[in-house]
Structure formats: structure tokens, C-alpha cells
Write the C-alpha cells for this entry.
Amino acid sequence: MLPEQLSRTLIRRMLHLFCLFAGVKLELLHVPCETLDHLAVWIPEKKTVYGADFVYSSFPNVFTFRGGSRRSSYDWYKSVDRLRYLHTDLFLGGHLSPIEGAQNVETYLTY
């Protein structure tokens, strides 16, 4: 197996990790979108998810600005569904203002 194939295989098997950080339970979710190894951080006690570069104001973000390889729209929409099923009250992204309220987050992720 080539190194790139091996890393893709390992990444696809990494679906859900749990950790405790400063007494706060965090769940790391594999949500390929910007990169194959992209993670979202779910804080269940706060019903908050940090999605980093997961979403932008235009969907889906399958093209790169720097000439990298095209992103998978299938992986992206499966990742959107994975975050939608959390029914989060607060969505924090890297390229947008925080989205508050379960209905607002649901609307944003299904728009």
C-alpha cells in the first residue's frame, strides 16, 4: 500500500475519539471536508461544536484556492450530516460568526 493510501485508510477509520481536557469532556469527530484528516470538536455538556474550516458562506467548498487536489463533495455532505445529528446549540466556525440556537444551526447546515 502506498503511503497516501495508507494514511487515507487510517484516517477513514478514525471516526470518534473521546478525551478529557481541563475537566471538560471533548469528542473529536472525523469530518473530512477541508482536508481528509479534518476534525470537529464536540462539547456535549455545552451542546457546542467547533467546526473550524468546515463550512463557509457558500456550499460545498470542494475547490481549493491554492491549486490542491479537489475535495470530495460526498465526504463533505456526509460530514455535514454527522454534525447536524448532534443538534448543537452553538456552532463555532473558523470563517464565520458563531451561530447560536439549535434551529439556526440546523438552518445554516441545511441551507
